[in-house]
Amino acid sequence: ESQFTHNEKGTFNYAKDEKSTGEWKRATSNVTADGVSNKMTDSDGNTHTYSQTATESKEQLVNGDKSNFEKKTAEGNTISITEKDADGNPKSSLTNTQTVAGEKTSVTNNESSSTINQGADQIRHNVTSADGKKSSIEVKADGITNTSKDGTITNDAKDIVNNATGDMTNNVGGKLTTTVAGQATEEFNGGLN
């Protein structure tokens, strides 16, 4: 079945297809002075909606416990992808926000979460586990900071070169272990204190 309506307020379309098995699909499309809206649904629980005005557009896809939402304005974009558990509670998600000030992405699940924040003056990565342990990387023009107070920072490569034109400070709260499989060479041109 289908229906078409046109009046002084706009145009309104409707269509539905239903099979003898009980399966069905339905779609609506409306155009008014306020904007455009479309919606598609089916008997499997899938929904696709889209709306557009002079100032924004929105689109959402829903399939059972999964959904994907996107919004666009002149100020920026937002994307949100979520999955719910059997009780309808959030299970995992991804959110991305973009503006001229920067971009932020967050990913969460039952076990952990992570965020990436990027602005013109810095980039920051954060990871948090379910038991509260955190690690982060912060990059600015005047320096890079790696932090993992409850964990380990590992550098693994064929060659590692550290160059410091100024000072280098190492503070060890526990044991210091150095293992050299080959030859070890140290030069102290300024002497030892």
Please give a structural write-up:
With 193 residues, the protein is mostly beta strands. A 14-stranded antiparallel beta sheet has the order 1-2-3-4-5-6-7-8-9-10-11-12-13-14, with no helix packed on it. The radius of gyration is 28 Å and the shape is elongated.
Task: Give a summary of the structure in a few sentences.
This protein is mainly beta. The protein has no helices and 14 strands.
Q: List segments where confidence is low: pLDDT < 50 over at least 5 consecutive residues.
A: none
Radius of gyration, in angstroms, nearest whole number: 28 Å
Q: Quote the beta fraction.
A: over 45%
Order of helices and strands: EEEEEEEEEEEEEE
State the distance separating the first and last CA atoms. 91 Å
Alpha-beta content class: mainly beta
Query: What characterizes the major β-sheet?
Result: 14 strands, antiparallel
Number of helices: 0
Number of E-state strands: 14
Shape: elongated
Please state how the strands of the largest beta sheet are arranged side by side.
Answer: 1-2-3-4-5-6-7-8-9-10-11-12-13-14
Mean pLDDT: 94
The level of helicity is under 10%
